[in-house]
């Protein structure tokens, strides 16, 4: 069966992904069942998206009930499922307004547009205040503009011309200060760079970004596409650093497995994007928002968040016991680990063959399990990983 699926996939879909040898029929918690009946422990959660794992009863019910009522109506009409989600997100994060879209890249596009429009409104077109500083090794998406925003040279090839107006900065205060001038309208960071290798930016730097942005009326954008909605044991990762950004982007885990993106703005820029400045046909889709409402209700719970921290510590302690693994880092259930001798890509592929789904980030292994993973599932996954790393 898997062979037939592979043939069909290879014949009819673009070969833009290197795929592991697995396809699934169903899932429960953090365990998936393959087409051949084998089970797989999931340390990847669809790259951080299936936050409530598979088959969460309330999530499934909310999505199915909404699909039965009506699936979509467009943003030409009021949509109470979306406005309810917006209210929850604003109240939980202290932000003022939300725009919903369909992916992380789109959320970042919206943040970039907001930052440029804020400067345009306040300083005028002739000010040329449109530069956005991003961080080396960051990742912000696959559209032409978010590839430009991404601070990795490897992504700045093949698709010329790229969107102009991005400068890449090492994550330290001195470098940032050197680059800042009157043409800069925003600084965009990930508190923990996910695709870039699970690199945690220092609290000192993150606070410096906030201070420098305040001093220069520059907007601080925090890309929480991977780190947001409970992933690090706080609702937002930025809470670990005690500051408030002007714009926050979310996606991945917010939908619990359905496509959603969102950018949230503070009071300062809540009137920046107005009628006709932005739009999205499917943004705020009721079925997707019905699922996201359940995700936010569950993840915003204090006990749920504490549990993520505990399970993250448990997983880290288990990883520490594997001799091949070194340099374990991360917060909550977003963890990176280096390997002494083996390559991460080979290890990931061997793990899949033995029943464990695991991610890589550059040369590191990356762990982004469903937030509901049980200790038993962690144990089973670690058993497989230990075997592979022998
Ligand atoms: C930090 C960050 N920003 C943006 C994106 C792009 O999100 P999407 O693939 O939903 O467009 C990703 C995806 O991995 C991400 O990790």
Walkthrough of the structure:
This protein is an alpha/beta fold and 390 residues long. It has two domains: 141 residues, Alpha-Beta Complex (Aspartate Aminotransferase, domain 1); 230 residues, Type I PLP-dependent aspartate aminotransferase-like (Major domain) (Aspartate Aminotransferase, domain 2). The chain is built from twelve helices and 17 strands. The strands form four sheets. Strands 4-12-11-10-7-5-6 form a seven-stranded mixed sheet, sandwiched between helices. Helix 10 runs parallel beside helix 12. The protein is globular and about 60 Å long. The site of pyridoxal-5'-phosphate has 14 residues, from helix 5.
Strand-helix topology:
Blueprint (H helix, E strand, L loop, with lengths): L1 H11 L11 E5 L2 E4 L4 E4 L2 H4 L8 H13 L10 H14 L3 E5 L2 H20 L7 E5 L8 H6 L16 E4 L3 H7 L4 E6 L2 E2 L5 E2 L2 H14 L2 E5 L23 E4 L10 E5 L20 H14 L2 H19 L4 E7 L2 E6 L4 H11 L1 E2 L1 E3 L2 E4 L7 H14 L2
Parallel strand pairs: 3-15, 5-6, 5-7, 7-10, 10-11
Antiparallel strand pairs: 1-2, 2-3, 4-12, 8-9, 11-12, 13-14, 14-17, 16-17
Helix pairs in contact: 3-9, 4-9, 10-12
The structure holds pyridoxal-5'-phosphate.
């Amino acid at each position: 069966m898997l062979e037939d699926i592979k043939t069909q996939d290879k014949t009819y879909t673009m070969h833009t992904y290197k795929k592991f040898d697995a396809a699934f029929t169903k899932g429960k918690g953090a365990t998936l069942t393959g087409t051949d009946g084998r089970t797989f422990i999931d340390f990847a959660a669809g790259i951080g998206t299936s936050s409530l794992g598979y088959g969460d009863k309330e999530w499934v019910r909310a999505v199915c009930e909404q699909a039965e009522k009506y699936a979509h109506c467009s943003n030409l009409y009021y949509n109470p499922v979306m406005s309810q989600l917006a209210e929850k997100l604003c109240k939980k994060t202290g932000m003022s307004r939300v725009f919903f879209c369909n992916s992380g890249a789109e959320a970042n596009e919206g943040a970039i547009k907001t930052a440029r429009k804020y400067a345009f409104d306040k300083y005028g077109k002739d000010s040329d205040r449109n530069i956005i500083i991003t961080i080396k090794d960051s990742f912000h998406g696959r559209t032409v503009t978010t590839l430009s925003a991404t601070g990795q040279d490897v992504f700045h090839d093949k698709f010329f011309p790229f969107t102009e107006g991005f400068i890449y900065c090492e994550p330290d205060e001195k470098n940032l200060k050197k680059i800042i001038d009157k043409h800069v309208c925003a600084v965009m960071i990930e508190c923990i760079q996910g695709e870039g290798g699970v690199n945690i930016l220092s609290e000192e730097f993150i606070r410096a970004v906030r201070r420098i942005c305040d001093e220069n009326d520059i907007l601080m954008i925090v890309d929480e596409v991977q780190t947001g909605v409970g992933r690090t044991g706080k609702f937002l990762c930025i809470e670990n650093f005690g500051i408030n950004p002007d714009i926050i982007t979310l996606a991945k885990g917010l939908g619990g497995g359905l496509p959603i993106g969102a950018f949230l703005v503070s009071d300062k820029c809540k009137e920046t994007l107005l009628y006709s400045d932005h739009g999205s046909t499917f943004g705020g889709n009721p079925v997707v928002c019905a699922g996201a409402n359940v995700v936010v209700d569950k993840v915003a719970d204090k006990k749920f968040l504490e549990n993520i921290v505990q399970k993250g510590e448990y997983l880290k302690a288990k990883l520490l016991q594997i001799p091949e693994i070194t340099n374990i880092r991360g917060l909550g259930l977003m963890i990176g680990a280096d390997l002494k001798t083996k390559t991460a890509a080979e290890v990931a592929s061997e793990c899949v063959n033995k029943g464990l789904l695991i991610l890589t980030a550059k040369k590191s292994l990356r762990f982004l399990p469903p937030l509901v993973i049980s200790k038993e599932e962690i144990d089973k996954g670690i058993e497989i990983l230990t075997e592979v790393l022998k």
